[in-house]
Design goal:
InterPro entries: Glyas_Bleomycin-R_OHBP_Dase, VOC_core. With about 120 residues, the protein is α/β, with parallel strands linked by helices. The chain has one domain (about 5-115): 2,3-Dihydroxybiphenyl 1,2-Dioxygenase, domain 1 (Roll), CATH 3.10.180.10. The chain has helices at about 15-25, 65-80; strands spanning about 5-10, 40, 45-50, 60-65, 85, 105, 115. The strands form two sheets. The chain has a four-stranded mixed β-sheet with strand order 4-7-6-5, with helices on one face. Strands 1-3-2 form a three-stranded mixed β-sheet, with helices on one face. A hairpin with a 5-residue loop joins strand 2 and strand 3 (about 45-50).
């Protein structure tokens, strides 16, 4: 059997806000609440379930994306006023070019870093 990560829980302060934020970065829709979670279906195999019952915890979620999705995420970060930069914990409003592609780290208000990159370094 092939192992596939199906879902993971993302602990946040406000599950609706955080799910909408990631959905906007990815250019997808947040799902309807399901029990205590608000899901964001990342692709056919992975859903991130946002949960605010225990409060926020910083985290890091990295996404290998195509150029169109990268541009959507970067545009959303620019328009929303989120902290973003070329490296973890760096807010230089620059992208990196590791591995010949483009990469950026976008932080949400809970301290979660969403990394978007277009090629594997």
């Amino acid at each position: 059997m092939t192992v596939v990560l199906n879902h993971t829980i993302v602990p946040v302060a406000d599950k609706e806000r955080s799910a909408r934020l990631l959905a906007a970065l990815l250019g997808v829709e947040a799902g309807e609440p399901a029990g205590p979670f608000v899901p964001v279906r990342v692709n056919d195999e992975l859903t991130l379930d946002f949960d605010d019952r225990l409060g926020a915890r910083p985290g890091h979620y990295a996404f290998l994306v195509d150029d169109v999705t990268f541009d959507v995420a970067l545009d959303q970060a620019r328009r929303s006023g989120l902290a973003w930069g070329s490296a973890p914990r760096t807010v230089d409003r620059q992208i990196n070019h590791l591995g010949g592609g483009r990469g950026v780290y976008i932080r949400d208000p809970d301290g979660i870093a969403y990394e978007f990159f277009t090629t594997v370094p």
